[in-house]
Amino acid sequence: MPIDPKIFKAYDIRGLYPEEINEAVAERLGRALAKFFRGKRRAVVGHDMRRSSKPLESALVKGLRDSGVNVIRLGLLPTPVVSFAVIKLKADFGVAVSASHNPGRYNGFKIIDRRANQIGLGQGLERVKEILERDKGYQGGKRNKGIVRQMNVVPDYVRYLTKKFKSQIRPLRAAVDYGNGTGAVTAGRIFRALAIKVKPLFAKPDGRFPRHEPNSQDPKNFRWLRAELRAGAYDLGVFFDGDADRAVFFDHRGQFIRPDITAGIFALDILRRHPGAEIYHDPVFSRAVIEEIRRAGGRPKTLPVGSSHFKPKIPEEKNAWLGAELSGHAMFLDFWGIDDGLYASLKLMAIMYKSPAPLAVLALPFRRYAQSGEIRIKAKQPGRLIRRVAKHFRGGKRSRLDGLTIEYPEWWFNIRPSHTEPVIRLNVEAETASVLRAKVRPLEELLRAP
Q1: Average pLDDT, integer, range 18-38
Q2: How far apart are alpha carbons 65 and 26 in whole angstroms?
Q3: Rounded distance, CA 66 to CA 142, Å?
Q4: What is the C-alpha separation between 318 and 200, in angstroms, rounded?
Q5: In 342-430, at which residue ranges do the beta strands (DSSP E only) sit?
Q6: Predicted local distance difference test score (pLDDT) of residue 7
Q7: CA distance 138 to 437
Q8: Residue of 98, 100, 216, 327 with catalytic role
Q9: Could you tell me if 260 and 366 are in contact, meaning their C-beta atoms sit under 8 angstroms apart?
Q10: Is 105 within 8 Å of 18 (Cβ atoms)?
């Protein structure tokens, strides 16, 4: 039975309706992964809070077990804890059943190798697709079935992060929006252990997402957190996405700190201790962030959008201390390159502990250019639109690393297709607001023209 090709458009096989990823597909995926990781016989599996996640997890475990793989079931927890478990338990691979920030009716799988790298396109996902479509994954006989057992790794994860940050963070006040995702499963316990006073919003895991979607890239989801920050006396606000592998931040006034600015704050702190460190970033980072990293002696390097491009670089390149994306993913060398919204939150709080300045002031050096924000335009044929833009805009410094980037002396833009949706994403930045206004409108008109 052929598999819907949409399953493999995403880097982590996520973001699909249950009728496209169902229990039969999950069981077949278990068998396919047993063959893909042939000879590797120890896996960990966790799941998020969606209604379909537990049935999918059970079917996946059955496929793995029937193929001779020993499985440790981790239960309900954030995706980063699955990666942590792979490292700490020396598992051969792991799988998180989650659709991250997507609406509750979606689900999928994130496949993690023994070094906590996510298996994406270009890293082996195409091979998984081949095996899954043929459904000829290795199947052990009745005597060769794997052993399945439960394990709670959350206490180990909590102890690890608490010990790491105990002396680095002063008591502070934070408003935290969990979005009814999995973030509160671990974050609440760690915040209490570190004497951080937290006002939790929507902390109970609920895959129906009754208040708002756990999407950290949609500003309409921030209004509850912003209202709380403006009404109370807080040092910062934290917003977790659905599976808590990302967090985005707000200052004490409720002003959003763009994730590239947060990455700049992380980078400057790293460079004080590790001069010449490499900082990986995506093509849509503000030029202010890149300039400040260079000014501090760092070496910024651009990678295509998608955490599966970043994560292998962090442990492989010994001087690559940080990888970060505008989407909010942040991966640190001192945490095995795992993208973990809670770890990033604690890092930011530790920086705030060392600085007499509030978060709003720490962000100021990175705010000197005017930005359009991400403009999403529906596109059935994104390649055709990119070619149209490339033909229309002459001159400038060009890059095809991810979509199309063109830089001029006073402004620059990046246009790229989404990996998971039929849209094209446009980001424009300019030295002044007037230049920005003059450039954004013709670009939008060109992209929206029939």
Answers
A1: 85
A2: 13
A3: 8
A4: 37
A5: 370-371, 375-378, 397-399, 404-407, 411-417, 423-430
A6: 46
A7: 58
A8: 100
A9: yes
A10: yes
* Residue listed under structure tokens 């490339």: 390
Residues pairing with 173 in the sheet: 197
84, 153 Cβ separation under 8 angstroms: yes
Is residue 345 part of the annotated active site? The answer reads no
pLDDT digits (tens, 9 = 90+) for 239-293: 999 999 999 999 999 999 999 999 999 999 999 999 999 999 999 999 999 999 9
Is the C-alpha dihedral spanning 388, 394, 400, 403 positive or negative? negative
What tokens were used for 332? 């640190």
Q: What is the pLDDT of residue 172?
A: 93
Q: Are 138 and 31 in contact (CB under 8 A)?
A: yes
Tell which residue, 11, 23, 41, has the closest CA to residue 308. 11
CB 264 within 8 A of CB 291: no
In angstroms, the CA 4 to CA 31 distance is 18
- Angle 295-297-298 (CA atoms, 0-180°, nearest 5)? 105
Q: Given pLDDT bands bounded at 50, 70 and 90, which one contains residue 16?
A: very low
What is the Cα 324 distance to its own chain's centre? 9
User: Could you say which DSSP state residue 262 is in?
Assistant: H
* Assigned token pair, 394: 């002459």
Residue 47 to residues 19, 125, 184, Cα–Cα distance (Å):
18, 20, 14
Q: Is 7 within 8 Å of 111 (Cβ atoms)?
A: no
The residue among 264 and 4 whose pLDDT is bigger is 264
Take residue 400 and report the two structure tokens written for it: 């095809």
